[in-house]
## 1
Amino acid sequence: MTTYSTTLSVNGIPYSLAFDASRNLLSVIRNEVGLTGTKEGCDDCECGACMVLLDGHPVNSCSYLAAQATGKEITTVEGLSSGDELHPIQRQLLDAGGVQCGFCTPGMIMSTDALLRRTPEPTDEDIRIGLSGNLCRCTGYAKIMEAVKATAVELSGS
């Protein structure tokens, strides 16, 4: 076992950590940092429940070594809201009924945030591509698509 010591920036907060160099980012975020909003679904890059943003880009944290995240800004679902106020994506998902079991929701939120930063006025095709790394077994995606569109309108001020 090779111990790796580093500082990871998670949601703008630096964490000085030591962990086995073979550990994935998901396990370090959940177990060392203590943020459990990022979910462990498949541990195989199939479901997107573990999606986080690294320097604004969506990444499956189950397949990304934590050591590789040194020097990058890691954003988890906890980092999007401000105090008790939900982020527009979170609120729109609730309002549209795009949340059922909720397991995929953190990953959907992170992928949506990345999508809307890249493409502020996404088409249906843009949304499908932007969320293609996230599986939802409950909603059928229609309400999620509706929430993404509503969030885009809200954020653009239109």
## 2
Amino acid sequence: MTIYHILVPDSVHPSAVEILQAAGLNVTAPGQMKRADTLAAIADADALIIRSATKADAELILAAPKLKVIARAGVGVDNVDLDAATKQGIAVMNTPEGNTIATAEHTFGLMLALARHIPQAHASMQQKQWDRKSYMGVELRGKTLGIVGFGRIGRAIARRAQAFDMKVIAHDPYIPMDIAEDFGVELVSLDTLFARADFITLHSVITDETRHMVNRDSIARMKPGVRIINAARGALINEADLAEAIKSGHVAGAALDVYGEEPPPPDHPLVGLPNVIDTPHLAASTEEAQVAVAVEAAHLVVNALTKGEYKNVVNPEALRK
């Protein structure tokens, strides 16, 4: 009987380890591992479960001759070299369901905070100031929310926005019109969304087409006073262009949970800028979400190694190797 070895170099919820061990797998999960220790330990690993701290780059992948599966406890696989994994026949799987609600709630929290200047007003009160005039906000009711990317998270946000009496439009070239209609959402072109939305929230993956989709040219097509929320990927925004538009007043404000470089450098053009709310990539940071993605990742690995069942594979061509 084959005994598979699973390496977990990032801190994941103990439930994942319990599931792996219950399936008879050998698990190495010491908590957050240093890069050198991970490189040394991975030589014997059949599967790798990671969060965002470990970079499964070409060096790490080539140091793992037995590796069959990389499971990302989360949605994004930006920290995995998909080309290198595919060349080695390693299936890369993610867990898109576990943090949907956490991300949707955080996004909506950012939108409310942006509309009502809640963090700035709180900071003012912490300084013993009573300044009501500086923090006049706007209501969400009656405003148009443009959702770029209408997958699980986009749909969860649409439901919450409709509860606030917002008009919801969305852009997603991969979603059929009837699905959007089922949610009471109008599917529109990206240019139409930019032109009509009072609030824009981004939920796209990074591709050649979406990288820096928010830039000087696209911002110029947006309504004056638009507010932008990004809890998806920092690279969706040209950060220098957005900073310029906020300073000019064309963009009323932005709320960001993700950045082109993380952590952002001290001279980041948006961090510390008035009318910008920043959080340190917290969208999936709830107790419930961390349990859910860990459990989902563990089940993916167990099913792949013991049953040959592969789900949520982001590089399906690896399975043909």
## 3
Amino acid sequence: MINIFLFLAIVFFFTFVIGKLLEKIRIPWIFAALLLGVLLSIYSPFSSITSSPTFTFLAQLGMYFLLFIIGFEINLKKMKKKRNFLIKATFFIIFLEAIFGSIVIYFVFQTTWFIAFLVALSFATVGEAILIPILDEFKIINTRLGQAIIGIGTLDDVIEIMTLISVVILIGSRIQTPFNLGLIIGSLFVLFALTVGLTKLKKQGIKFKFKNIETLFLFVVFVFFLFLGIGIYGEIAPLAALLAGIGLRTFIPEKRLKLIENEVKTICYGFFAPLFFLWVGASMNMTYLVTYPLIIILIASVSIAAKLLGSYVVGKREFGKKKSILLGIGLSVRFSTSIIVIKILFDSGLISVGLYSVIIASSLVFTFIIPILFSNLLVRWKISKIKE
């Protein structure tokens, strides 16, 4: 019986070797771990390890570190200048997909309009953690396109929280759920207060002398886990990781910012992120894909068409045709915290196993296909070479 250490050795060796081959076709090397996960979802002699609490914990840390890096890369000054565009684009794109999706769900699965809209709205949100390695690989995080994708992906977390609260309030006692509305609101308040506090303490951050990079790294890790710990109480740990990155970016002195960014990226991409992508791939259930292929294609087609239409309408003037299309494709990536809403509705008996399975399967298909499509279009259209 193989132990977890030998399993990790296999994972990192596979990621290293296959990652080199993927780089030759301009796909980020880290998606080799996702490919391995997909293979393990078909047949896995290591299921006892990949389903263990230890591995799940490590994989979730990978997701949180990726979200932390997203927050760390967000340029608040640029976002403030484009806040009107980001707010308008976020709500227009997300709600356009939610409207089209709810129509399909209502007629195909015979749900109520309200449930159909909740499912479609949660499905429409973005799993931005999947996309960050690509943005980083092609050096477009700090471009207008990169900041728009990150900004919309961050703002849509607000929609996810609003949807979750709506489910808890409006469906109420019919749902057997551990979510506590008071804890959610309280955690949000504390996290935003801490984030604003760090941004307001910029001058104090300069005075706070970090003698070496090790002590600065310990401080960053402290803030990271503090935010996560608070976020866990309200089931908003992904948002907490984002806010931790945003707050620290504004607090840490500019001279130290690049150094600590490299340290965080090393531990994230070098250890935790491959485990996260393996976890995502291994969580796929091919049974769903075989059982409901036509419905999955329908849901996926409506979803991406709505994203592309919405992105093209709001982004054509801002980015041009090609970049607005890339915006829509990038925002189609899944694996978002919104799956919590789907799980609550399923556990309460308000949606059928068929609808639940189709949504999960569609999310997993998007998770695997969109990053590859996005990477190849970046290369074909030479977007990464355009200076802004």
## 4
Amino acid sequence: MSKTHPFDGLLVVDFTHVLAGPACSYYLGLLGADVIKVESLTKGDAIRHRGGTDAVAASSGMSTSYLTQGAGKRSFAVDLESTSGIDQFHQLLSKADVLIENHVPRTLERLELDENSVATRHPHLIHCAMTGYGRGGPQENTAAYDVNIQASCGLMEATGTQDSGPIRTGAPVLDYGTAMAASFAVASALFERATSGKGTFIDVSMLETGLSLMSSTVTDFLKTGNEPKRRGNLANSRSPGAGSFPCKEGVMSLGVNEESHFVSLAKALDRVDWLNDARFAEREARKSNAAELASQIEFELLKRTAEEWEPLLQTAGVPSARLRSMAEALNSEHVKKRGFVQTTEAGVSVPTLPFRIGGVAAYKPNRKAPAHGEHTDEILSWLSDDS
């Protein structure tokens, strides 16, 4: 495999379910790792049967939520409640480089797969545990989903308007944020193991991931004691001219934060008079007259559609973008050119990685998402041959 797949030859055991854990192993697989998804003998990962709007696919165990991060893996169905199943799992771990799991500690302790037990039997292994609250606190055994963590970390309280009340983000951003944090941690641990020759335990907290995604807000609160307020579509910079504005048709999001941005905006809107207007010429004056400036910006933007304004403003150097639907975003020329959406051999289109290494065009899954237990016989045969 190409040098742009740095995890080529790495064996990852994916003992995870739902979104965050499977996404982490999916990312590692896109970068070359051989990923074996360990599932129960009964119905496997619960997300196979729920999530998304395709009820027919979900009923067959191939929901769109599962397909999103299921490609590039092999599925191994095993009964971890049985002695033979546990033995097979440990056989697998003895050959693996990385174990990724997202079960609460008490579940792992019952199966004798907790971090201490695993480290004793497999000292070479990098064991990445992903849980809602992380180890060591009173909530370490508390089950959690993305929506629970959005509530508990303060993200929901900071989202929405004063009238709307707290609002969850429109997508499970903490699941995927946690997956990326875990992937970063695994890469770091692999780098360390290359020198030390020893495995390690990684403790990933969804709660702390949520707080990390709000880092500047957290620091501001810690320094000032000011709780974040729901500001709707206004930018966190609190700069006049940074926010969302209606147009003749559509909405423009402006990020006018620097002095140069304001000058560019004034010129692009043919309002150079603002640059000599005592109310707007200086930053502090604009803050004092923010409502009036916003009103005037809106007045100008209402003269054209957002589709017309976007190229004009962007060419002028104004940080800006028009509000798009998901369909518009995915169909944009730029997203298509980048190859962010890739199609598996089963004809299913899925998101790939948001970065490229060494000029690679795009990362594509090397196999379709497996059916439940699809590779069990193949893996058992491999374990038996090598035992």
